Amino acid sequence: MTRHPFPLKTFTVAALTGLALMTAPAVAQQCGGDFQTFLAGVKQEAVAKGLSASAADQTLSGAQIDRKVLSRDRAQGVFKMTFLDFSKRVISSYRMKNGAANMVKYASVFDRVESEYGVPAPVITAFWALETDFGAVQGDFNTVNALATLAHDCRRPELFRPQLIAAIEMVQHGDLDPQNTTGAWAGEIGMVQMLPEDIIKFGKDADGDGHVRLKASAPDAILTAGAFIGHLGWQPGEPWLQEVTVPQSLNWAETGLGKTKSGSDWAALGVQPRWGQISGNLPASLLLPQGRKGPAFLAYPNYNIYLEWNQSFIYTTSAAYFATRLAGAPRYDAGNPDPGLNDAQMKQLQTKLSALGYDVGKIDGILGAGTRNAVQQVQQQLGMPADAWPTPALLNRL
């Protein structure tokens, strides 16, 4: 399922080099080097896994390096948006209206999804909207070229080489045209933007034509998305995200992902729902995407499934919130958050935190999990409200 255009897990080149040595001579070239030699190794691996040489040739014979793919992979600036900016941008009245209409239009498919996998229609519909505007914008990168480019590139070959092998399998099944199939820059295909391995594992033929066609068939896309989300561990009948109001007397250091209390315990501390009822028996984390003065949400266990879909906190929280809106929740109370940091200030903050010994990852100006955790710890040490929201005041204190 789509994990782009947002960051994926990274792996060390050293580890991959070790893997290449262990698997030689079966696969002589894991990544890099002469492109045609690399493709020959991919074909060799595909045939060794039982795929036909003709399908491999059909898939790989015209493959080319796409420099635009590498450029997109290196520059993912959307992560630098705040939750309020990003959510307002992607949750439009158009998407709300069309989301509601599609839930009615494909009600029978959504009913099947919920019956078989327990995943509610708003959850899938929100992803469908955010990924491709209900199929209208699916990407114009040649899928095979994108996957071959990223598999050849030595940054994350352990992710993309298997996807290229899976694309060969799709060609063999008649579900991918190597010359004409297009999608996202990172190789995802179709209305819900899935990678080839996931399509093979979880693809469902909902319209009965004998193929899984996620580009053209909304029923196939809906049922496949439901199967994938169900596989990730979605708990039927449980909430995923709930907007709440919070008292300003709260201990902010207890907020954030990975820090949970029961819904009842949060309620006892004065946390109140803006819509629906707090699920008292479920564990929940209190999320403050822009600090204690901005919107607040209780994230229940099903929220973790969103992080399996995409690792960006801003994207996942926006997608989960969008699904609550489609389910009937009101627009969030944006509050009045303290001003955040611009790109240069964020990089300066990350540099200072890194110098203090905190693991913030790459100095990239992105407020990721590592930076949020470090900010919260430093705020606590400095006697500031530890809500994990970096401000100019914090930067000045450092």
Distance between the termini: 40 Å
Largest beta sheet: what is the strand line-up?
A: 4-6-7-3-5
Basic shape: globular
Largest β sheet strand count, sense and barrel closure? 5 strands, antiparallel
SSE order in H/E notation?
A: HHHHHHHHEHHEHHEEHEEEHHHHH
What ranges have pLDDT less than 50 throughout 5 or more consecutive residues?
1-28
| Rg (C-alpha, Å) | 22 Å
Helix content: 40-55%
Number of strands: 7
The whole-number mean of residue pLDDT values reads 91
- The structure class reads mainly alpha
What percentage of amino acids are in beta strands?
5-15%
Please tally the helical runs, counting DSSP H or I stretches of 4 or more residues: 18
Write a structural description.
The chain is built from 18 helices and 7 strands. The longest helix is centred in the middle third of the chain and has 17 residues, at 157-173. The strands form 2 sheets. Strands 4-6-7-3-5 form a 5-stranded antiparallel beta sheet. The protein has a two-stranded antiparallel ribbon with strand order 1-2. 47% of the residues are buried. Helix 2 packs across helix 10 (157-173) and helix 5 (83-90) packs across helix 15. It has 398 residues and is mainly alpha-helical. The chain is globular, with a radius of gyration of 22 Å. Strand 6 and strand 7 (296-299) form a beta hairpin. Residues 343-398 form the Peptidoglycan binding-like domain. This is Lytic murein transglycosylase.
Task: Give a quick rundown of the structure.
By secondary structure, the chain is mostly helical.
